[in-house]
Amino acid sequence: MGWIRSETVLLLTTTNACYYCYALSPIIDVIMACVGEVCQKSVFIIPHYRDASEKIGLKDKVCLVTGSTSGIGKATALGLARLGATVIVVARDESRGQETLEYINKESNGPPGHLFIADLSEIDSIKNLCKEFKNRFERLDVLINNAGVVTQHGKNTTDGIDTLFAVNYIAPFLLTNLLLDLLKSSAPSRIINVSSSAHGYGNIDFNDVQSRKKGAWRAYGDSKLALLLFSYELAKRLEGTGVTVNALHPGVISTNLISGRESSLSRGFLRAISSPFLRSPQKGAEPSVYLASSPEVEGITGKYFDKLRERKSSERSYDEEAGKKLWQVGADLTAMK
Ligand SMILES: NC(=O)c1ccc[n+]([C@@H]2O[C@H](COP(=O)([O-])OP(=O)(O)OC[C@H]3O[C@@H](n4cnc5c(N)ncnc54)[C@H](OP(=O)(O)O)[C@@H]3O)[C@@H](O)[C@H]2O)c1
After folding, report:
1. Region 52-63: what's the mean pLDDT?
2. Ligand 1 lined by 92 (C-beta under 6 Å)
3. Residues with active-site annotation
4. Domain range for residue 121?
5. Is 194 close to ligand 1, i.e. is its CB under 6 Å away?
6. What global pTM score does this model have?
């Protein structure tokens, strides 16, 4: 009942009207998803994506997807492999990683994928991942920072960072920075950050930048806002390099994110009652695959996509000063110059 409890406490305690708005946004999202579903099947087809897989090839492209052992990331990795990409699966658990790799290789008919083991909540593990990757690969065409958590807020990593902040913000910050030289030498290349519409209720307090004083869902919103601020700051820093960076909201998707990986009666119940309203991981992967592969977004950088549509993100996400400050937080915590 952890999810229900924290969500209820959050709803009861918050006084921020803006937050209520965004708390309701998944419901609105689900309604819009259903309407969109009907429209796509009838008149208002999204033409650029529907036949994307027939037109776009990722042959000879190397694509690294974090959080590819489940949910949206797994579907993204398969989608990219089906377009001919060499997919790099990053997993924290060896057996889940192997299982994912076998699934992708079997289902895609693409080039064989590769598995790297890394716990993205640990700085040294991310550094080792990058070192090992550079030893084995000479290029990187697409980096998808997809891994994310909600429920691990309040626990410290061995680096003394809140786990939610570490996985959702520090990991993409460090991984991207450590792989930038390869992305630049492989240009044109693309970075895709999987944020969330939950960034809309994010409100970073630099006196509590890891949102330790907040509940899990507010901390999650803050971390997704942090990822957007990072994306926009990075896009500016990468101008003229041929490396683009965009962020996205995948929709409200049926994954382990909310209902959890472990099975229990309450989680099973939660899954059962929510699943008719949620979109499939395949649908959730479409924006990432689109941004990774479509010629339509070639050269497009520093943008936010709500599913397949470019949209404006929250006002706070365009705060350049906050973006710079947050960059420094990432650099200090990971001891980067
Ligand atoms: N589902 C939604 O409705 C929704 C909406 C908006 C945004 N998103 C975003 O979409 C992204 C993917 O989430 P999802 O819904 O697909 O959730 P998910 O099924 O729970 O997948 C999360 C992935 O991240 C991995 N991960 C978590 N902690 C990690 C760590 N310390 N080291 C390495 N990998 C780690 C998980 O690995 P394990 O397999 O080992 O657990 C899993 O592969 C997240 O960034 C999430 O915030 C999701």
Report:
1. 76
2. yes
3. 220
4. 2-333
5. yes
6. 0.87
